[in-house]
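Why does residue order matter? Because the sequence determines the fold. Keep that principle in mind as you read this record.
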Amino acid sequence: MTAYSPSTFRGLTFHDATPRFADGSDTPRAYLERCLETIAAREPTVRAWVVMNQQGAREAADASTARWKAGKPLSAIDGMPVGIKDLLETRDMPTQMGCVGYRGNFPKRDNAAVWALRQAGTVVLGKTVTTELGGAHPGPTTNPFDSGRTPGGSSSGSAAAVGACMVPAAIGSQVGGSIIRPASYCGNYALKPTQGGINRGERQATSMSTHGPHAGSIEDMWLVAIEIAKRAGGDPGRLGLFGPDAPPAARRPATVAVMEAEGWRLLDDASRAAFEAIVDALRAQGVTVLRRADHPAIERFEQAIQGVQALTNVITGWENHWNFRNLVAQDPNNISDRAKSVLAGAEKQSIEDYRAAILKREEMRRAHEAIGPVVDALIAPASPGPAPVWTGDVPGQPQIKRPTGDAVYNTPSSALGAPVVTVPLMSVGGMPMGVQVMGQSHTDAAMTAIARWMAESVPPVAA
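Structure:
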């Protein structure tokens, strides 16, 4: 493995290939074959994929090639090879959710986002590894920059497939930290949209889950998200993702605030130094950077989100426990001991506990809304350091609590329902670490514009 450098690493991109499709000097089929070559070389170590439909992908790429040749592509992402997290249903591949209880599950229908991607002409190449049921129990995927480290969870395979340049984009999902943290660990751009911004289809069981793209470029990230939203909209009763068809132009923010949250105390010295170097670079570019002591609304927000990680666990545990209980009732071996531990904790809760958590979440959201007039965006580390080493649980010893890393810097945006973009601007010890840009609801395009400006104007930092 080669040490990661944010200054020199270039992810696989698609948007810049389409002019060659239009003039005939390249084709979607040839692009797909290059992806398959990379997968053949790297998959034995990275293990990002559960199942692939190469024949179907080649047929879709050939159809896309014909459309580009005729000058009639279906969208800007017509012909793009994509991976789909194995929590989302696909009509041509099983959906097994990293779980013994769903082994062989094959509904033969498309999730709303998958349906939209096919309508846009993308090449749905395969299902990417997820942690068990999107929870804490890891799958086999390794970090593309160090096979001894986790790629993050639960969108493990989607993040690693993009980080390994196997595909230009892949769909992930997040309840606690499952888009933003893996993107940070794998050097990706990623969008965790406003809550309900992308139609979750059958994945509506939890109140904080969202779908969002990982990508090798911010342009491809936006194009995937908006092409889904244009066709499938948002969740029922939600307005859906707003924004232009083309990737938003870079925009320098006037004022941002640093979100310390509960993760600030967990940052190691090198990670903190790398992030502070980003803060200094923003100031050097004329951006006003506020800290919690600089404005009472920011301080009230910081106080309001204390305890957000525990609150997220209460809400998610309550909302998921009936499904976990059903799986155990069918067969006690259907879920892992780690999932059974989560179930046991959830079953100690009451409806009153859940209601109290929902009310507390509303207080957090009001505190977040109050800083809207004060800053253009919040910035923070996208994870409390680079990807941790993961070699597996040790037999006879307690299971590692967070084998795919700590979501402490991701649960605020999940609870707030706020849009976040991850920008791969840092490396720590030769491993990726992202910066997140978070905004108010329905400012996804604005956050993408700010993130794009940062990617283009702020010097990357290696610590």
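The longest strand covers residues 420-428.
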